[in-house]
Amino acid sequence: MCQTNIVWFTIVLVMLSSNCIESLAHDTGFEASASSNISATDMPIFTIPSSTITGTAFGNSIMNIGPNQMREDLILAQFQAGNIPDFMRTPIPISVKAGNDTLVYWVLPDVLCVGTNTDYLRTPLNPLTARKVADLFSAVLPTKKMAYQIWQAATVKLTPSPNGPPYDSSMMSTERMVFHNTKIQTALGNKTPGELVSGQKKDVVITTGLLTYPQNVAIVGWWYPSGQMIQPLNYKSHDRFYKDYSHGIRLVNRMVTINGQWYDIYDILRNPALASFISDEGPFDATQMYT
Q: Which of these, 110, 126, 151, 166, is most buried using a 10 Å CB contact count?
């Protein structure tokens, strides 16, 4: 049996002893990708900022900006500067077993947010901007199956709290973004941030449906603690510029392990023998989604 030692610094390093079992990937003739330029120990670590801004201050600074490209660019600039809470620099490992084989991927504990540990604002983005942030930090958006696995693994499962009517373009406003964030923080109470949280937002995901509807955004989830979801997979209703207060951007590290061997998650998704670890839609090529 593979003996795994996990050492925590600001990132997670997985080191395996020489007696690890032969990997499923090797058995199926699938070798670790040599084409990826991603280091095997790269986790989605953000640039340490030279200055910080609280979520409240940032929300106020964009309050009068509509859900347009200017707002997207201003939010993106915060992530480029590294203005995120410190707890968002420590990813959480998710283990998925299939027989004797184990795939591990790493996910950030909450959806993308700007601010500090004590004052942060979750920031919905359209999937084009979300992909830019993901690429910037060697990360990917989850699949539908991964979104459910993350909910299952979450140690903090919130009860979804939609804003309610009106169901119109105001759902994309900064005001409703900030209002919903306040509701989530109230639900979290005095919990120390850093645990894996789910139930706070719907997930923006990658899916085979985007191969047919490449100009759209795919969303799923918002699970209740009971396991019932608000949002079945939907990739038909909204174009790729749409984002409302209920959308969360969850980043997953692009490099994963199978039995300790590192692989690019895009290669896993394309491989018929391996995709089922993280996809219930079969293998598919996600490399060009949201670009």
A: 110
Please give the Cα distance from 232 to 229 (Å, whole number): 7
- C-beta separation of 95 from 74 below 8 A: no
Nearest Cα to Cα of residue 277 among 28, 16, 7, 1: 28
127 SS3 class:
helix
pLDDT per residue as tens digits for the range 91-111? 999 999 999 999 999 999 999
Reduce the DSSP state of residue 270 to 3 states and report it.
helix
Listed residue (205, 249, 289) closest to 72, CA to CA: 249
Q: Which two tokens stand for residue 218?
A: 């795919």
CB 99 within 8 A of CB 65: no
- Which of 93-97, 136-140, 172-176, 266-270 is least confident? 136-140
Q: Under the phi-then-psi rule, with left for phi > 0, alpha for psi from -120 to 50, and beta for the rest, what region is 10?
A: alpha
Cross-strand pairs, 94: 105
Are the beta carbons of 283 and 30 closer than 8 angstroms? no
How many other β-carbons are positioned within 10 Å of the β-carbon of residue 239? 11
Residue type, 16: L
38/184 Cα distance (integer angstroms):
34
C-alpha 280/C-alpha 267 separation (Å) is 16
The predicted structure's pLDDT at residue 237: 96
